Amino acid sequence: MQLSDNKEITLLFHKSYEKLSVAEELHKNGHYEDAVSRSYYALYYAAKALLSSKGIITKTHKGLITQISDHYVNNGLVDHQIWHALAYTESLRESADYCTGEQITEEISLDVIEESKKKFIQVCEILVLRQR
Which CATH superfamily is domain 3-131 in? Predict the structure, then answer.
């Protein structure tokens, strides 16, 4: 891996934690839809960092979710339930941002933040470190 790749991956994880921090603040202030949207982007940037560590570039959100499944879930490196948090949160983000589908409650917002913080982002970081 080249130094520039390491910098990019570090930047992506920084953005991931930044979005998670914003999501937590939004949640505390009762902005549950925006908290879910920012939580999704926390997951998105962690997933992007993980894929970048293998030189995989995606152009769409669905493409990113599919590539995580293809390269990490299907070979047992990421548990399906952890991957599902990414896919489910992306659908919640669409509901939150475009007022379609599921209503975002305080409980949903908190669950998404906790799943982001405790599982998905940490798994991505561990896998990136293993690949180095």
Answer: Nucleotidyltransferases  domain 2 (1.20.120.330)
pLDDT digits (tens, 9 = 90+) for 62-78: 999 999 999 999 999 99
Quick: pLDDT tens for 2-48: 434 689 999 999 999 999 999 999 999 999 999 999 999 999 999 99
Task: Tell which phi-psi region holds residue 76, choosing left (phi > 0), alpha (psi between -120 and 50) or beta.
Answer: left
Measure the CA angle with vertex 113, ends 30 and 38; round to 5°.
70
Angle at 11 between CA 8 and CA 16, to 5 degrees: 125
Q: Which of 122, 53, 120 is nearest to 80 (CA)?
A: 120
Q: Is 71 exposed, middle or buried (0-12, 13-18, 19+ CB in 10 A)?
A: middle
